[in-house]
């Protein structure tokens, strides 16, 4: 199951990690309507983009390993200290940082890369003051076979959560099916927010994994205006919008920690890449650009089938990498690549297949 920013950040805002935004919701409508047709699935992801890693920064790497191993059911696939020179992505700092990589090969979910936080590190997305109306990288999402059992397991481990599981329903005319789900939003030891989601509709697919959880596949990037995000993903990666839904449900708002009357749009860019773009209908919000020296969810890693072509597309669009190189992946100690900063301030590491 899959679960939306303004491009113009000032240098000062990037340095401080936040900037205040005001939407144009009250602007006078144009006499001419301009729309955009959703792209067919087969044409929506020409570089074969796929999220392969979520990077979270934790003040206690051992506690994060224990959480993802004992509570989520992942395995420790790699652990060590970072050498010098792998990447100069924002906030990576000096060599010697403790890291660990958790994976779940059975489900082919994305890896979770845990980085040791610098002493006295602040949060990428401070809680409880921030919410989904604040543009930026919001969550990593995965599934479970049973929301009650999953919630009990996480609650028993003392996991912070916004609410118990909430039921919500969508009719997705783009996909041609109804979406009946239960979800809840826990937080990992580094402060990273997750969605744990279960299909409960009568025609749902049978659970095909041996464990309670599937690992993590999907992310959501929030905004006050989805158009800059759509443009960034299309210009940098060729990803085009394939769907959009609207949400005005109290249960779903309670799930994400939004005011009960919040209205937002959400849908996917590309097919198979697992990135949702949200547009929250709010008068203002605070953007939180991510960095590898702040705690919580800091970066996603996208694998592409042609790194050189992706670089060329970025250059053509005037999108300049903010870092060169890449952090370790399982089986690839020095994968190479580059890092971009997305339209909502999110860090995106790009690696080859």
Your description of this structure?
- This protein is an alpha+beta fold.
- It is 16% helix and 32% strand.
- It is built from six helices and 18 strands.
- It has an eight-stranded mixed sheet, with helices on one face. An eight-stranded mixed sheet has the order 7-8-9-6-10-13-12-11. It has a two-stranded antiparallel ribbon with strand order 1-14.
- Strand 4 and strand 5 form a beta hairpin.
- The protein is globular, with a radius of gyration of 19 Å.
- The two termini are 24 Å apart.
- The N terminus is likely disordered.
Overall structural class, as computed from helix and strand content, comes to: alpha+beta
CATH topology: 2,3-Dihydroxybiphenyl 1,2-Dioxygenase, domain 1
User: What is the approximate shape?
Assistant: globular
Assembly status = single chain
Sheet of most strands:
8 strands, mixed
Instruction: Name the helix and strand elements from N-terminus to C-terminus, one letter apiece.
Output: HEEHEEEEHEEEEHEHEEEEHEEE
Poorly predicted residue ranges: 1-27
Please describe the structure with a list of short key phrases separated by commas or semicolons.
353 residues; alpha+beta; single chain; 8-stranded mixed beta sheet; 18 strands; globular
What's the layout of helices and strands?
Layout: H1 11-16, E1 19-22, E2 50-58, H2 61-72, E3 75-81, E4 98-103, E5 111-116, E6 136-144, H3 147-156, E7 166-172, E8 177-184, E9 194-199, E10 213-222, H4 226-237, E11 245-247, H5 250-256, E12 264-269, E13 275-280, E14 284-287, E15 296-304, H6 307-317, E16 323-324, E17 338-341, E18 347-352
Parallel strand pairs: 2-5, 6-9, 10-13, 15-18
Antiparallel strand pairs: 1-14, 2-15, 3-4, 4-5, 6-10, 7-8, 8-9, 11-12, 12-13, 16-17, 17-18
